[in-house]
Structures are given as structure tokens and as C-alpha cells.
Amino acid sequence: MGCWSPLDAMEAYMRTLRLCEEFYKYCEEEEEEEDEGEPIPMEPKCVEYISALAAGNRARRMVDVEDGGMSPSVLALAAAARQTGGRVVCVRREREAGERLGRQVERLGLADVVEWRVEGRPRESVEQIGGVDFAVVDGGMGEEDCEEAVAALDVGPRGAVVVVSNLFGGGKSGAAAEGGRRRVQRRGRSSVVLPFGGGMEVIRIAGSKRRTFVVYYEDTKTICCCIPVLDCHANDSGVRKSKCVRHGVAYGESDSIKELCTNIV
Asked: What confidence category does residue 156 fall into, taking pLDDT thresholds of 50, 70 and 90?
């Protein structure tokens, strides 16, 4: 992700407060309690935190994966998108929920920043969204769907932040913790669990940005195209390594690519 922007985070925080107020006013005017379900209970810490985190990281491609229509996370991401000039893609399993969300988005004037998709299992829709900067995945969907959605994310070159909410639904904190470890092992670089929003896990996923450089040796007439990589799983100390694309040789900072490559030419 890019550099943290405290100004964007603060502006998104304020936008979220106003948007939540508009949503409740809309619920009263349109009698949402009878037509499309009860008003959504908002936990301020959860909504404002998500919005500030997304905007502060200057996220532009955001994804919300859950069941149902409008939710606190959609409002939070919409406020962040307004601040960063981004867009939110909401993934739903059932068409009825997607259509209900679409009506709510239109009435709240959020159609310019929010869209919705329905593709059966969440993974199928998530796989089609490229360059994700920020995502919110509802852990209440079930461990399998949650794991698949996180694994299917195609993150941008700067990496991404993923928020998994409702970890402690039904009091299954042990299962949630185990699921969190699997998510970090599969995709994450680091994670932390926060005690609000029904239990919220924040995962930072490393980007796929790679720089290529060419090494040329006149004495051996060897030309090698190399990609620097940082393999944190193989090397706990975080020592930067590189790989010769031509010969498939990995080497560290103290190794000589000339010696390694010419030995297999």
C-alpha cells in the first residue's frame, strides 16, 4: 500500500458519520423496517475504523463480500471511495440481496461509487475483480466461503488490506483464530485481531510488484535478467534475495550471480 494519509482518513471518518445519518433518515422516510428489513445496527468503532483505514491507505479499488443488502461496511467503504476517488464492488450470493442493495444504493445517491455483483459462490465474483486495494469479508458467511474469498483476491502491485469481520459470531473464537492463522499463512504478511465489530481481523497482503534488471559480464558473455524478491516465509530475517530468470538460480546479497550463473551455463 502507499503512504498513510491522515487527512484522507479524517475526511472519510467525517463522511461516514454524515452518511450513516442519511441512511437512518432514509430508513425512516421509506419505512425500511417494514419493506426491506430492520435498520442495521451500527457499531461506530467498526464503521468509522474501516472507512478511515481504507481512505488513509488511499485505497481506490475496494470490495465488500457478505450476505444481505446495505451494511455498515458498505457505508464505510462508500465514504472512503468518495474521498479517494475510488469505487466499491459489493459481492452477494443471492440476487434478491443484490437487487435490494442496488435500490438502497440508488436512493442514498451512492451509485457513482458502489456497484454490486452476484455470481453464486463469492469466490467466483471475487476472482473477476483485479487490482484490489482494500476488502471487507464477512466471517459470518461461514469459514469456507470466507477463506475462499480471501484466497481469491487479486491484489494490486502495492498490496492490500483485508478486514474479516464477525470473527466471534456464535462464540467460536477458537475457530476464528485458527481460520485467521490459515488466512495469514496463505495470503497475509501480518495480521491483528481487534475486539470490536464482532471481532475484526485486519490482514495486510504483500503486493506482487517486481523489478527486473539486467546483468552483463563481458568476460563470459553472459546476460542474465534478474528479479529481486523478498521471501519472508523462507527467511525469517527478511534477507532480500534475487532470482535469475534465465537460469532459475536464487542468490542472496552476499552471493555472486556471476559465479552462480556461469557454473550452469
From this structure: confident
For residue 139, which of 111, 102, 176 has the smallest C-alpha distance?
A: 176
Residue 47's Cα: distance from chain center in Å?
Answer: 16
Asked if the 6-205 domain carries CATH number 3.40.50.150, the reply is yes
Residues 6+ apart with CB under 8 A from 99: none
- The band of 126, judged by pLDDT with boundaries at 50, 70 and 90, is very high
The amino acid that residue 157 corresponds to is P
Give the number of other Cβ atoms within 10 Å of residue 249's Cβ: 18
Helix 72-84 to helix 6-30 angle (10° resolution) is: 130
- Listed by start position, the domains of the chain span 6-205, 213-262
pTM for this structure?
0.71
C-alpha cell at 129: 475483480
Q: What radius of gyration do the chain's Cα atoms show?
A: 22
Are 101 and 90 within 8 A, CB to CB? yes
Neighbours of 240 (CB within 10 A): 11
